[in-house]
Write a structure and sequence with these properties.
Layout lengths: L2 H14 L3 E2 L5 H4 L1 H4 L4 H9 L6 E5 L7 E7 L2 E8 L2 E8 L1
Parallel strand pairs: 1-5
Antiparallel strand pairs: 2-3, 3-4, 4-5
Helix pairs in contact: 1-4
Length: 94
């Protein structure tokens, strides 16, 4: 999935609050969206300000066939993936 489609899909998930978070170590530092330090609206603004040059993707380290998307913009790191119909955030941090 390319940047344009991933961006639309993740924004839809944030706007409708249809997302979850991957369990991980150091979640209080690595996923500030999960901790409530940053709001979905703030993440939406960050993602809307991003461009294709801010995006990369790679295979998930543990889930075969799942593509992980990374958006790095305005000193923020936003990492997520899709397992239809779910959007799952791995990291949202500076």
């Amino acid at each position: 999935m390319g940047f344009k489609d991933a961006k639309k899909k993740v924004l839809d998930a944030l706007e409708t609050r249809a997302f979850s978070h991957e369990a991980r170590e150091a979640i209080e530092v690595k996923n500030l969206l999960h901790m409530g330090t940053i709001t979905p609206e703030e993440v939406i603004k960050l993602i809307k300000s991003s461009s294709g040059t801010d995006h990369s993707s790679s295979a998930h380290h543990a889930i075969k066939g799942v593509e992980v998307h990374v958006i790095k913009c305005k000193k923020w790191y936003i990492k997520f993936y899709f397992v239809d119909p779910d959007t799952v955030f791995i990291s949202v941090h500076q």
